[in-house]
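JOB MANIFEST
job_type = single_chain_structure
chain_count = 1
residues = 451
[input]
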Amino acid sequence: MVFVRGADQAEFVSRLRGVSGDRVLLVPVDVGKRSAMSMVANQLGEVIVDPFEFLLDRPGVDQLLGQVAGAEDASDAAVVRFGIEAAGHYHRTLTTALQTEQVEVVELHPGAVHKARAEMGQRRLKSDLRDLAAMVELMARGTGRSSRWEDDPIAIQAVWSTHRHRKVKARVTMSVQILSQLDLVFPGLGDCFKDVLRAKGGHTILRHSPDPVRIARMGPDGLRTFVGNRGVRMARSKATLIVATAQRALLVPNGERKARMRVLQADMAIYDKICGEIDKAEAELAKVIGDTPASVLTSLPGVGITRASAYGAALGDPWRFASAAAAWRYSGLVPIQYESAGKKRAGMRISREGSAPLREAILEIGKGLSDHHPEFKAYKRSKIAQGKKKTIAAVAVAHRAHRLAFAMVTTQSVFDPDLWHQSTVGGPVTATKSDRNDVTRPPPLTMTAAR
């Protein structure tokens, strides 16, 4: 029998057959930063234990389990299910602690809790108690994703991939700040390099002497010696260009310029530290990727360790998804669908309801392939030639790339260019049969053997 909310709901309902509702206990937990609220209710909606607050520490967990144990004995419970709202990262430690106690835990999406509260006529009346009531309603329907976070290579990969992603965003922010300061400290220096921050000569000047007055006094030979003493070789033509730029530069008042110069050098020190963290994260990803399903993705053109790791970390256990289409919907890249009374609304944007990291990772896989594989490049050009916007063409390429990547990780097969060419020479790849189950709450994160 097929259930609208997929395998998790099917498994939960199968355990309820023949069990009276007053013997099924539901324990919603609304997690905060330092404490949480909970209560105990049964499948019929009766409150067994009034709402109570507990701290998110070991004694607090013991208090929660003690309250539930008392209710379990009093009700002769046959099924006890904890439901935790997956709010940010605060729920992770409590989830781990409860799993250690071998209790059943499911995660509830905050958006689902909000909608359930709206159904109760309390959309704008948010409180911990109302959230608990909404969570009981959801759990009684069998809503919730089984939560099984394990200490495996995929989890380690996710940690380092997330760390790298944050640091890359920080580097972009620092780059903008540095370049804005440079326009007032040393105007024109950025135009001397394709990327002044990445070029060794430009980086050395920014780090040690972003002073156009001093650079102008050095002359080309002096500048070459200056950077040479710091391990960088600079062509005479490049040095001549930089000195000429320094001589022509318009300068702000001397006191302000020197203050800005100090700020610029301080920002460069932070920038270098961020770059070091990115390098460290990439080194750690290189160590762990061989133990994860995503390792086969490095055989794709334009997909290296960082792109493969980001996709693998965001996807988690690939075998938890029934198909590539299910994972695609979980990414939120599917278009918004509106259909009523036989009428469809066209031109809808992507839903964005799902995993943002997976969405970004899929788009990156598509970008890598469209930049380095001739057939993916031609496919993107054909979409643009059809009048599609570049963003829409990128999503189309990402869809094709995702289906290829998903097949590779689930079968653990490396990329075969000849086989791929044979599969596409007859025309576009046909989509697999759509999964009818609700995939917005995917199955548990557990590694299983490749099928």
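[summary]
Residues 293-337+347-424 form one domain.
Residues 85 and 108 are 5 Å apart (CA to CA).
exit_status = 0
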